[in-house]
Design brief:
Elements lengths: L12 H18 L1 H12 L9 H5 L4 H26 L16 H25 L4 E3 L3 H38 L3 H13 L5 H6 L4 H18 L3 H17 E3 L10 E3 L7 H22 L4 H6 L4
Helix pairs in contact: 1-4, 4-6, 5-10, 6-7, 6-10, 7-9, 9-10, 9-11
């Protein structure tokens, strides 16, 4: 069983607290390239130093900003690997899946189905409300965006999945000796980590329903499928295809995407619809394809 693979007598919860601190330090180290670039522009080229996250996002050319931000996740991934291997004496496979090897077909299926949904829903919004969008496509900047995104966005999304659906899921299982508590805690923390995203200040805290709901979806499919493969594919598709398709002045990523949303942000159907309708449909598709059973035990059962 996937979540039980981290349950060891020597794997005390304090190790997960220490490991999380070490991963945070890795994140800080990964932000040094961005800091160095900011200081260079400030002291060498005389630009005023940005005083907010929003001004930092607009300080450099969008592709350069995206590259500098995503580099930090390379450091985070290295930190996760080192913490899992040397602090917990586990393999990366053990925090990825209960299978003997990673099932890349599962990753591909999840990536494909969510990519299709993202493309179809974006085009539907575009054609139904064309005044809310501008065509933003520029071949060369988009090609550079695609290269950066294809290489580094899966690193970003995978590092988040390894932290929440892998490392912390097993960590909270060590603490609580059940499955509902890790599912709930990782979903809340995952959603809470997005509280500083610019769309929260624009739309309001109601958008956290979407983020926590997404964390809950990813936790459920991880527990039901006994591995992170479906979550890895979903998260990569969500961020990569989203970054390539659409951007806005108030989104977390400013990109040279195909479309730009110029509408006034509001907590509307795009916040609530995925959580209450789309995600349950996705769960139904996964459950039928992979023949999931015994939902209550897998999502809330005790660990002995």
């Amino acid at each position: 069983m996937f979540i039980e693979q981290g349950i060891k007598s020597e794997n005390k919860f304090w190790k997960y607290i220490l490991g999380s601190i070490l991963i945070i330090f890795a994140s800080f180290a990964g932000q040094l390239p961005l800091l160095i670039a900011l200081l260079y522009e400030t002291f060498v080229n005389g630009k005023p130093y940005p005083t907010s996250n929003e001004s930092i996002m607009r300080f450099f050319e969008p592709n350069l900003t995206l590259l500098l931000i995503l580099i930090s996740f390379v450091f985070i991934m290295i930190g996760i690997i080192l913490v899992v291997r040397y602090l917990h004496n586990q393999t990366m496979l053990s925090v990825t899946t209960s299978r003997t090897k990673i099932d890349w077909r599962r990753v591909g299926f999840s990536f494909s189905i969510w990519s299709i949904f993202t493309v179809v829903s974006t085009l539907s919004f575009y054609f139904s409300n064309p005044a809310d969008f501008v065509f933003n496509f520029k071949p060369v900047p988009f090609a550079i965006l695609a290269l950066i995104g294809i290489v580094l966005i899966p690193v970003q999304t995978s590092s988040e999945e390894y932290i929440f659906r892998g490392y912390l899921m097993q960590g909270f299982a060590n603490l609580a000796k059940n499955k509902w508590f890790p599912l709930l805690m990782t979903s809340i923390i995952f959603g809470g980590m997005h509280i500083f995203n610019p769309e929260v200040s624009k739309i309001g805290y109601i958008v956290l329903v979407y983020y926590i709901g997404t964390g809950l979806l990813l936790g459920v499919i991880t527990l039901m499928d006994e591995g992170m493969e479906l979550a890895l594919g979903f998260h990569a598709a969500n961020n990569l295809v989203g970054a390539l398709l659409i951007t806005s002045d108030w989104s977390a990523f400013q990109t040279h995407s195909i479309f730009k949303d110029i509408s006034d942000p509001s907590a509307g159907v795009d916040v609530i619809l995925p959580v209450v309708i789309i995600y349950p449909i996705l769960l139904f598709i996964f459950s039928k394809k992979y023949k999931w059973t015994d939902w209550q035990e897998k999502l809330s059962g005790k660990i002995y």
